[in-house]
Design a protein that fits this description.
The structure is a homodimer. The first copy, chain A, folds into two domains: 64 residues, Arc Repressor Mutant, subunit A, CATH 1.10.10.10; 171 residues, Chorismate lyase-like (Chorismate lyase, 3-Layer(aba) Sandwich). Helices cover 29% and strands 31% of the residues of chain A. Chain A has nine helices and ten strands. In chain A, α2 packs across α3. The N terminus of chain A is likely disordered. β10 of chain A pairs antiparallel with β7 of chain B. Chain A binds a DNA duplex through α3.
DNA sequence: TAGTGGTCTAGACCACCAT
DNA sequence: TGGTGGTCTAGACCACTAT
């Protein structure tokens, strides 16, 4: 392996530049192990901390992932899961019999598994209360927290909030929500989803999110706050999706008003 | 100021926990300066590098921003700019006479300014070529790169790609594109935007993007790849929007197919 | 000029992993 | 057991900011 001299002026930058060049040129392929921090330091004539700083820079760029006790590895480029505004289409569901998550997993030849983590009656967070038109002071909603996996790899965290007045005494308080799922039960209550709104932000994951999503450092999350509106234009369900941004992309198609 | 003992076991975690507690409790308000790294080290009885590591952790969480020569400051929480699928609505444009960017700036009482950085004929990047149905081997597109500012603060980087065969000999090769802007000229060429598709990912900014967007470390970008389709369903324009994720959110509303 | 963050050195010990 | 990353110490000099 050749470590050509980098263009940066700082030693840590020079090391990072040289290694980045090896990666982008393909000399170091995804999955390959980098020279150890001590080895990089030796080759470039620096202290170990300086080589370590170079590795930190590359980690922040999401090019490499350090693994304790094993080494630093070039990131695998993974195909993106794609989620979008077609995921609520009843037509797709009728034709395939699959929920959007299971459909996307099948498309990529992966096994879908969904784990219910918690179902409880809680006081909603501010942004949810605002959208559902309920109080943050009382336990006015039911919260359903689920973890979604593809071949046992974590993919997304999904938290659904429904007004307690809609959920009380229905299967919405149970792990299994019956035919048609959550939206089936909400239709029983007279809420037919007619319009949806997705509000999207990106941010770094919280500690808990990073842990569940197994997100290497330098990987942000996509945070999608979805609101469902019924035939009367009334919001009746809010769901927060948290995705690893290096594994998921979002797609929205829309008609342009003339 | 009280620096209560943190719960973490590692010294760097303990310092970070203590400072985070000061911020979330409001004892340190947005804009306030943290104790210097040397002072934190003194108070907690550690080496400076350890206090520095604590500051790095908080920076990664986007809670604080170090400023060279001045100090480390608690982040200001800023209101989000909001962009969505209504931005291509001709109706809004007719009613207000404002482009979506200028409309959002007016909504927030800020002055909009747009700076054309480059207009050149280039070979398109792979993802753009794929969507426009052109070759990556020839200079088959014109690229228009613009920087958008709100009160002189950078907000987004916008790069538009149009087939050279559509742009040749029109105002699309000039900084001023005339009435109705880019889409006005494309309508002259017979492309009326009928459908749009936005593909959204989040990632850490490249060095150049971070520099222009003045993005503090720990802040990801939202990368929106927009494709416009005309009345025949043919793609005729691709635009990449790169936003600072702590300053911008996206909103999509859509009808649900019955 | 004094104080700040930015970077670096040359060590040290620990936790984790493979053999 | 040896190699790896994770963390820490106790210094040092530089670049930037304010006075």
């Amino acid at each position: 392996m050749t470590l050509s001299e980098g263009a940066g002026q700082l030693p840590s930058r020079r090391i990072a530049d040289a290694v980045r060049e090896l990666i982008t040129s393909g000399e170091l392929a995804p999955g390959d192990k980098l020279p150890s921090e001590r080895e990089l330091a030796r080759r470039f004539g620096t202290a170990r901390n300086t080589a370590r700083e170079a590795v930190r820079l590359l980690t922040e760029e999401a090019l490499v992932t350090p693994v304790h006790g094993k080494g630093v590895f070039v990131r695998e480029k993974q195909r993106l899961f794609r989620w979008g505004n077609d995921r609520y289409s009843r037509k797709t569901y009728r034709e395939t019999g699959l929920t959007p998550f299971r459909l996307e997993m099948k498309r990529q030849g992966k096994r879908a598994s969904i784990q219910a983590v918690a179902i409880d009656r809680v006081a909603p967070p501010y942004d949810v209360a605002e959208r559902l038109g309920v109080s943050t002071d009382e336990e006015s909603v039911i919260r359903r927290l689920n973890e979604y996996h593809a071949d046992d790899e974590p993919v997304q965290l999904v938290t659904t909030y429904i007004r307690w007045s809609d959920a009380e005494g229905t299967l919405l308080t149970e792990p299994k929500t019956g035919p048609g799922g959550i939206h089936g039960r909400l239709e029983d209550k007279g809420h037919v989803m007619t319009t949806g709104r997705d509000e999207i932000t990106a941010r770094m994951p919280t500690h808990n999110e990073a842990q569940f999503l197994q997100a290497p450092s330098g990987v942000p999350v996509l945070d999608v706050l979805h609101t469902s509106f019924d035939q009367d234009g009334e919001p009746f369900e809010v769901t927060r999706f948290v995705h690893r941004a290096d594994r998921s992309g979002l797609v929205y198609t829309f008609d342009v008003e003339p």
